[in-house]
Amino acid sequence: MYNNMKIAAIVVAGGSGSRMEGRLPKQYLPIGGKAMVVKTTEAFSRCGYVDSIIVVADAIYHAKCEELLRNSGIDAVLAVGGKERQDSVFEGLKTIPPDSDFVLIHDAARPFVSTQLIEGAIKSVVEKNAVVCAVPVKDTIRMMTGNKKSVTTDRLLMYAAQTPQAFEKNLIIEAYRKAFEEGFYGTDDASLAERAGYDVHIIPGSYENIKITTRGDMPAEREIRAGTGFDAHAFAEGRKLILGGVEIPFEKGLAGHSDADVLAHAAIDALLGACGCGDIGTHFPDSDSRYKNISSLLLLSEVAAIVHAKGFHIVNIDICVIAERPKIAPYRLEMAKAVANALCIAEDRVNVKGTTTEKLGFTGREEGIAAHAVCSIQKNQ
């Protein structure tokens, strides 16, 4: 409610989205992990001035739309749409609560509408009775005059209409009834109000409030995944201590089938986990003689190839070495560089750090070293 006026919002989601050339209508395609209709309707649900929301969906997808909204916790009433957008809006107008004073009409295909824009439309319509969000056109507009001739229009007078468009309830209902009685179909709600003799006022829209019409309008979305890895090795006499591919002066090394590089092993498991490819034991079993005393950085390079083969690239990896001794700090930059080279990524995408367990546990008793790694990978375009 705004100034004791009840506000209804109609979200039009009844189109087939034929220009998207997809299996699903565009309003059900995901944006930011949410179906477009959900993302759009949420903007109105967040607005404290909106008292009721009506979502108009195609009959075929009515149940799907209802389920998506319910699972998202959105309180909305569903109406069944018609053949054309104008038919769908009229069905929505029939569904709004009778005590509504003003109506906002918005296309589900504009999922980036902001709360600020919605509130601005509400405040303006209460004063002016009929408003349309619009933005000044950026390009020079030419108008055809016939016989392939054209003239330049005054760009300063040109605006691109958007939604939401907002109206006093009885005004827009009358405009729609008049249009249907006369068999007229307009391009938007404002054109019907204007045709019925009402003044329609322009209020500032937003260039971010784009309409999704074709596949090219969809924001580029790439899947991002995270993975974790943990490994631990006991100290062993007569072996070199290798961490992150760097030989560290110490009286003992680590026991293992390979070079027992616990840092690299944790990184391997994190990356394999992120791309859903098992673990280090699956790919490099200690029963295979090929990996006897092998450099774990070579194995790490193979894992990077697995990640790439799955269509991902490595965004970053953060590795923590847990050891009472030796101290990790003097070697952390060298280890990070070696890991980055093995993964073929920039050094600033690899972080290596060390910590102790304050004398607790097997690492605290200096029986061995453990490492934990966290990584993120992103699907390639």
What is the C-alpha radius of gyration, as a whole number of Å? 31 Å
Fraction of residues in helix: 25-40%
Order of SSEs? EEEHEHEHEHEEEEHHEEEEEHHHEHEHE
Low-confidence stretches: none
User: What is the count of structural domains?
Assistant: 2
- DSSP summary, beta strand count: 18
CATH architecture grouping of the largest domain: Alpha-Beta Complex
* Proportion of residues in extended strands: 25-35%
CATH topology name of the largest domain:
Spore Coat Polysaccharide Biosynthesis Protein SpsA, Chain A
Q: What's the N-to-C terminus distance?
A: 44 Å
Strand order of the largest sheet: 5-4-1-6-10-7-11
Q: Which class best fits the helix and strand makeup?
A: alpha/beta
CATH homologous superfamily classification of the largest domain: Spore Coat Polysaccharide Biosynthesis Protein SpsA, Chain A
Could you tell me the mean pLDDT? 94
Main features:
single chain; elongated; Spore Coat Polysaccharide Biosynthesis Protein SpsA, Chain A; 60s Ribosomal Protein L30, Chain: A; 2 domains; seven-stranded mixed sheet; alpha/beta; 11 helices; 381 residues
